[in-house]
Amino acid sequence: MDRGAQARGRSGTRTIDVMSAIRAKVAGRALGAGDRLPSIRGLATTMGVSPSTVVEAYDRLAAEGLIRARRGSGFYVSPTVMPPLALTEVEPRRDRAVDPFWVSRQSLDADESVLKPGCGWLPPAWMPEAALRGAIRALARTDASVMTNYGSTSGALALRRLLLTRLAEDGIEASIGQLMLTGSGTQATDLICRFLLRPGDTVLVDDPCYFNFRALLRAHQARIVSVPHTPTGPDIAGFEQILTSERPRLYITNSALHNPTGATLSLQTAHRLLTVAAAHDLTIIEDDIFGDFEPERSPRLAALDGLKRVIRIGSFSKTLSASIRCGYIAARADWIEHLVDLQVATSFGGPSPVATEIIAKVLAGGSYRKHMDDVRQKLTRTRRDIARKLQALGIEPWLMPRGGFFLWCRLADGQDATAVARAALEEDVVLAPGNVFSVSQTASSFMRFNVAHMNEPRTWDVLRRALLARATPADCSTHPSLKS
Asked: What is the SS3 string spanning 192-222?
């Protein structure tokens, strides 16, 4: 091929790259119907191509009907070609074994024969069945309106008063006007994102983080950046650098028993984090869904901040029932007013009165505290036993958490967790490979294990075979248990 042909080939490839970039922005809603595209010179500089390449790309996209030219004004997205929002197309396509939607579907849709050590909840036998049945029987004797009416806009007053008492135990002084109930913890995050974010806004998450934070942020068309997480919280130097360079609108985190790592925020890190956040006008969502699994309460950002820029959310899906859904938001009173309006607009009222009545009866009856005491003790023994069995396979916990049911572990000799998870799935065992949780995709040798779902012998047989299928001879000699 002569040099002229090579040059034309490179130019054609660059044109296609520009076209692909514009299509991706339209598909991800970063560019909406009628929006003006970047100037020719501006996009050429951004993408490192010549202006003539951008001109050719724009002309081709106009010929396809995706964009339109306006004389003397520039190029605009055509008003009639906006595709439906496909969340799996917003980011570069990944192996579905590390896609958060795929992992969620495998866990939620699996039948009872499928083992789920990669899921994020306790087995039914660990939940307070007797207390729930008692609350349901009591519910059947209450006024029929509880079983037939819509929920009030802020949620049942009785449950909100119980939650205020629980918040006070964490040092969070809040009034009834600073608290609302939601359909779930996920809906609480969704409402806050609707309230605070616009498409293209930057949101900061931990790396690794709970994978559904990433999935939900895709739905809000946010730009996601991440900060490395340490055993005491986010890396503060990296946190400050990101706030300076990226100017995120929001930060979402777990302070207590972080998902997936199990780490707990230290008091020193909490103070430094809030100082930096205040300097950069950053709002923080503190998801406390795992807080009740702690043996002793650790620092809470919402308590140190006084609900000024920190929004506290939580639910009872992990501790009581994932079937009886109810979450909550504690925040500034003026923000709660707006969030209540959003809940009316999107759900026509608060959570089901049936759900809130059952949860309130369990919390008020005294059995909840005993239930959680029993669960914490059982998890302490189980974490220790499962960690020892994992170590025998060469799988090392990143740290031993103070509580909870997750172990964030590194596989032996940097094995690829996605490949191991794929092999296990062929035998009906759902695992959670590390890159599902990692924005930067730097956790390929990590895996999150739910210790409460690892008592079935078949789980260990399948895990051993999946590891062996990906192991080298050196791995087997180092960890003979892989052969057994």
From this structure: HHHHHCCCCCEEEEEECCCHHHHHHHHHCCC
Q: Comparing 3 with 176, which gets the higher pLDDT?
A: 176
Please calculate the CA angle 260-263-266 and round it to the nearest 5 degrees: 150
pTM flag (> 0.85) = no
User: Which range, of 143-147, 207-211, 293-297, 339-343, averages the lowest pLDDT?
Assistant: 143-147
Between vectors from CA 188 to CA 148 and to CA 296, what angle results, nearest 5°?
110
**Using CA atoms, how far apart are residues 357 and 232, in angstroms rounded to an integer?**
37
Q: Which two tokens stand for residue 119?
A: 């899921």
Instruction: Indicate if the pLDDT at residue 471 is higher than 80.
Output: no
The CATH number of domain 96-125+369-482, selected from 3.20.20.150, 3.40.50.720, 3.90.1150.10, 3.40.1190.10? 3.90.1150.10
Q: CB neighbours of 211 closer than 8 A, spacing ≥ 6? A: 100, 103, 104, 436, 437
- The domain limits of the chain are 3-77, 96-125+369-482, 128-366
Question: Does position 477 have pLDDT exceeding 60, yes or no?
Answer: no
The rounded Cα 225 to chain-centroid distance in angstroms is 13
169 Rama class: left (phi>0) / alpha (psi -120 to 50) / beta: alpha
> Are the folds of 96-125+369-482 and 128-366 the same?
no
Domain 128-366 has CATH 3.20.20.60: no
CA 40 – CA 472 distance, rounded (Å): 52
Identity of the amino acid at 313: I
Instruction: Reply yes or no on whether the pLDDT at 391 is more than 90.
Output: yes
CA separation for the pair 78, 62 (Å, rounded): 9
Residue 191: phi and psi, rounded to 5, are -65, -40
- So what's the pLDDT on residue 83? 61
